[in-house]
Amino acid sequence: MSIESKAITLEARTKNSVVREMCNLAASTGLLWDAPAMAEAVAAREALHPTALENGVALLHPRRPQTSILSDSLAALGITSQPFPFGNTAGHQTDIFFLICSTDDQIHLRILARLARLVSDEVLLTMLRSTRSPSEALELIKAAELELIESGRK
């Protein structure tokens, strides 16, 4: 999995602004051509069932692959300076946002599964929350991914 775009610190403070900012961030890669259309698809998915997890992470994604507005699948990462309620009715706060943009269901499920495993690591989440740069966050994720791969081989 490749995180194509990252923002440390994401300036958004509301659910709608997070979705918009994350889609704009993904569009900055050149792989997503229509950020507003992606934001609409992600917001519709969030309305069905919020993607915020209890550990402060949200795995934003549209319900279906968006082949007409993507040249390739990508993931984007945004971290806010302060957590805030994000569609989670249990009162949990969210500050780490991943946006999954995929061109087909298999890729979508593969990225979602990999991210779900990565974000279950509280040490990784603590380290991500203390990062000061996008490149540092990317290095942390790459190292955690490599560790996952290596542990799967044992």
What do you see in this structure?
This protein is α/β, with parallel strands linked by helices. Helices cover 45% and strands 21% of the residues. It contains five helices and four strands, in the order E-H-H-E-E-E-H-H-H. It has helices at 15-27, 35-48, 105-118, 122-129, 134-153; strands spanning 3-10, 57-60, 74-85, 93-101. A four-stranded mixed β-sheet has the order 1-3-4-2, with helices on both faces. Helix 1 packs across helix 2 (35-48). The longest helix has 20 residues, at 134-153. The radius of gyration is 14 Å and the shape is globular. The protein starts with a strand and ends with a helix. 35% of the residues are buried. The model has no long low-confidence stretch (mean pLDDT 90).
Offer a quick outline of the entry.
This protein is an alpha/beta fold and 154 residues long.
Q: What is the strand tally?
A: 4
Residue-averaged pLDDT: 90
Give the H and E element order. Answer: EHHEEEHHH
Principal-axis shape:
globular
Secondary-structure content class? alpha/beta
